[in-house]
Amino acid sequence: MMIDVTVNEIIDLAAVSGRQLLFADEAGALLKSIGIPVSPCRVALDEEETVQAAAAIGYPVVLKVRSPEVVHKSEVGGVCLALTGEYSVRSAYREMMRKARMVDRQAQVTVQPMAVPGVEVLIGMTTDAQFGQVVAFGLGGIFVEVLDDITFRQVPLQEKDALDMLLSIKGSTILKGYRGSGPVDTNALTEIILNISKLAEHHPRIREIDLNPVFAYPVGALVVDARIVIF
Amino acid sequence: MIGAGPVDLRPIFYPKRVAVFGVTDTPDRVGYNILQSIIFGGFTGRVYPIHPRHQQVLGCKVYKSLANVPEPVDMAIICLNQFATVEALENCGRAGVKGVICSAGGYRETGEAGRALERRLVETAEKYRLPVIGPNTLGIINNDGNFYSTFYPLKIPAGKVSLISQSGGIGLAAIHTAIDEGLGINKFIGVGNCANIDFADCLDYLENDDSTTVIGVFIEGTSDAARFARTAGKVAWKKPVVVYKAGRVKDADQYTQTHTGSAAGSFPLYRDILRQHGVFTVSSIAELVAACKALAFQPLPKGNRVGILTHTAGPGVVMMDYLKPAGCVIPALLDQTISRVKQIIGSADPPVVLKNPLDAVGLGFGRSVYGGLAEAMLADKNVDLLLAVYCLHQTWELPAAELIAAHKKNNKPLLVNFIGNWLDCRQDQEFLQTAGVPLFTAPEKTAVAASALVHYGMRQKG
After folding, report:
1. Residue B60's domain spans which residues?
2. Which of A121, A172, B372, B419 gives B391 a disulfide partner, CB atoms 3.0 to 4.6 angstroms apart?
3. Taking an 8 Å Cβ-Cβ cutoff, which residues of chain A contact chain B?
């Protein structure tokens, strides 16, 4: 596990390894180093390490394949959610490696806790051909995929821009609470948005960031899955 | 963009001596039309048509080349084909010309060979630090100096609104809509392919152009959208900027690229980022002109509370559909305003809707009643601006004088929606607009115009 690493070190490591897509644990460490709350992520080299990591994190856990050869994990069965004990971790690990090692003999896994569900949102950054670095915010899942309910701002963002993003999506009401659920912590979300803006501004080597989903809670928010692409 | 500093476009807009390359004696050629445009537009400087084989066109002596012109020129308009244009540009640079308009198309909008040719054009311009409008442009108009260089000869009313358009066709559409609206134009800039003068350069220039008070922009797409949005937001602190972005559908790129060589890009990005920078955006030419018109005629309101006076309910309903999403509020009227309304109508319990929108129905036709109601609403502390609806009628006349008086007394923005046609509204339009009160014929345009006023009023308040 990476401790006390800087953004530049993580980017450098990926760059010298010829990878544009950071590993989940690298993306997590990068975000953590700039104060963004992320779901913990441990790398395990073999079955025993995987079981130890799961026990240390606490069940239920999520297993994901970690390999530069595997970009779309779910296509090779590289994602196993909600594993509740040692037995299910071991069998998931073996099944995952059976497929993954056909693609990459060095394939490893990452182990993460199952995050407590919250309101799903996405926060992203992309480098547009006309506008340059742009931050995106939207509600996750069907809202962004089907309804295109997503809003953009140019980097650098000011605090009022981040706040305006939360208000200007069509599904904004969901953040304020509906059908008995309370409002989510909008400060926690704007903080992540502003942090992403700063990260992009100071590190133009980052081409794309996709935090999806981010779980928004009544207090706080948590990045559950992070994808970072460098140039 | 030439270098880092702002570009001086004054020689292009206020030239004293102009050369026109490619002037033939046939009215179906661009060179002829541009000379026609300069003469018809009433240019008071000296114009030097250039063509190797003609002696005289439109009563002007024609010179064989730029070297034959008896004095240095400030600017040149090149109406040659795309290849000869590059050579003429080189000659202009060498002769110390300070600005050029290149009409010809056939550059990056046509593909790889055209892209290479445009690179040569830009390199030549850069070598001499020469601002080039176009290529692939209708031209420019400066009504502040009677300088018309569009290949559609025009003579249009002068005013305070300047327009920047990527398209000549849409530029003309906006100009003719402005004529219908009785809105004077100060400058028109057809940016075309934006070789080295982009939207942002034009915005920077117009920011410091004292004769321009409002800027309207039609854009399909620009490779430097980041700078465009930032500049529009910056300039809008000094004078309002209204942007109409076209090319919204997902496959718009292929159409815009073959038009002016620029991809349309992502519409949601333009929409959201212009909003981020506090720029007012519209979705049609009609709205672009209506918003510019309101901003040119009226002061900015102190707040977002809109009063609506009408004698027919529908327009109020339509207006609210536009006003509310734009952040406007339809406030309740003060009790004392309601009392005044009753007094003016002359009944303690009049058969009208006694709230905002105030629908005076049949009781509101009379000049003095309608004028009184308008004044009462404008005097209401809850109302920051008033939209007054009236329908064209054989018997009843628009209470124009009363509306002007009410406006003068309260000095709050007033927009009149006179429902009728341009032909029959023309006299009232002229009468009201001479007094600074804009008249619109459609409720939608009136509402967008009000939204533009509220947008910049609120932005200035912070």
Report:
1. 10-292
2. B419
3. 128-132, 134, 148, 150-154, 157, 161, 164, 168
